[in-house]
Amino acid sequence: MAFQLFDKDDNGDATREEVELACLDVHRELLSLSASMKDIDSAVGRLDNIFMSLYFIVAALIMAVSLDASFTNLLTGAGTLILGLSWLIGGSAAEVLSSIIFLFIKHPYDIGDSVEIDNQTYTVKEIRLLSTIFIDKHGCFTQAPHSSLTSEFIRNHRRSGPESEPFEMDVAYDTTFEKIEELRAKMLAFVESRRRDFQPVFDISVLDLPGQEKMVLKADIKYKSNNHLGALKAKRRNMWICCLKQSMSEVGIFGPSGDPNAASGPTKYTLVPWEEVNRNDTPPAEGGGGTIKEPLIPRTDFNLADKNAALKDSADDIWGEGSELNLTNPKQMPTRPTVLPSSSTGPRSRARANTRRATAEEYEMRPGGPGGPQ
C-alpha cells in the first residue's frame, strides 16, 4: 500500500520525481488538514459568540417579564424596536445565515484546494465565517464573501479524479484519413510511453467541415491525475502539444493554409482559360489501401519549463514553505574532537588520530538528509 503512493503509473518502480511529488503532496495534505481544523474552529468560535449574544437578549427579556407584570406592553415595545431595526440588520442576518449554510453544510472546499470559479483558478488560503481568501495564479490575494459563492459553480480539482482537457485543431480540407490514422498511432505510442503523466488513450474526432475549407479535429488530453498542481499540469500539457506538433510535421498534416515551408510558385499569366490550367495543375488522386508504418515515439525531452516547477510553484505555496526548497548554506554537523590516550605518543598513534580527524570533518548534513538533493 505504501509503495502505491509513489508508483503512480503502476509499472513496478518509482522515480525520484515521483517520490518528491508524493512527499510534497503528503506534506501539503498535513498542512491543509491542520489549517482547515484551525479555521473551522475559529469560525465555530465566532458563531458561538453570535448565539451567546442572542441568548443574552432572550434572557434579558425573560427577566424583564418576570419583574414586570405588564407583559403585553413590554412585548409591544420590544417588537417595535426590532421592527425599527430590521432595515439595518436584515441584510446582515441573511448574509450570516447563508454563510453558515455554505460553510457547515455545503463545504465545497478546504484549505489548500485548487478550485475554479467563473473560469478562474484559485487556491484556498484561509476560510472565515463570512468570507474566504483565495490566491490566484498571479499570487494576488482575493477575498470572496460566502453569500456570493453560494450561487456559483465551484470546481474542486483536488477532490476530483483523473481529469482531461479538450484540444481542437484546424487542418487542411484535403488531409487524408490515412494521415490522421498515422497521427493517432504516433500519439498513442507517445502516451503509452508516458504512463506516469497520461492515460494510454488517444482518440481523434472530426467536429466540423466549415464551408469545406478546413477540417476541425478534436482530441482529449487525458492526464494521469487531477489538475490540483497547476505547474505540473502546464508541464504535461506542453509535453503533449510539443509531441503533437512534431508528429503532425512528420506525418504531413498542415493547417488550412497548407505547408508553411513550401516554396511559392511563380505567378502565372496565360490566355488559356483558367479552368484548363487549374485542371492540368491538379495532382492525381492518391490510391487507397496504403499500409501504416510502425509508429516511432517522437522526441519528448523538450525543456520549456523548470523540471522542478511543480515543487516551486508560488501559487501553491500558501504556507510559506517555498524558502525551504532553496537552501544555499547546508548545516554542518559538529565534529567530535578526538581524545588520544596520554600513552599513545608514537608515530603510528599520531597518524591514526589525523586519519580520524579528517574523516570526521568530511561528514556534513545536507538539507534533504543523507541521500538528499545535491
Descriptive labels:
374 residues; alpha+beta; 5-stranded antiparallel sheet; 3-stranded antiparallel sheet; 8 helices; 8 strands
Overall shape: it is: elongated
Secondary structure category:
alpha+beta
User: Which residues form runs of ≥5 with pLDDT under 50?
Assistant: 338-345, 358-374
Number of helices: 8
What's the count of strands?
8
Distance between the termini: 29 Å
Strand order of the largest sheet: 4-3-2-1-5
Secondary-structure element order, N to C: HHHEEEEHEEHEEHHH
**Strand percent estimate:** 5-15%
Q: What is the averaged pLDDT score?
A: 75
What's the SSE blueprint?
Layout: H1 2-6, H2 16-67, H3 71-106, E1 114-117, E2 120-127, E3 131-136, E4 141-145, H4 146-149, E5 154-156, E6 164-172, H5 177-193, E7 204-208, E8 214-222, H6 230-251, H7 274-281, H8 347-362
Antiparallel strand pairs: 1-2, 1-5, 2-3, 3-4, 6-8, 7-8
Helix pairs in contact: 5-6
Could you describe the 3D structure shown?
This protein has 374 residues and is α+β, with helices and mostly antiparallel strands. The chain contains 8 helices and 8 strands; from the N terminus they run H-H-H-E-E-E-E-H-E-E-H-E-E-H-H-H. Helix 5 (177-193) packs antiparallel against helix 6 (230-251). Residues 338-345 and 358-374 have low confidence and may be disordered.
Kindly summarize this structure in a few lines:
This protein has 374 residues and is an alpha+beta fold.
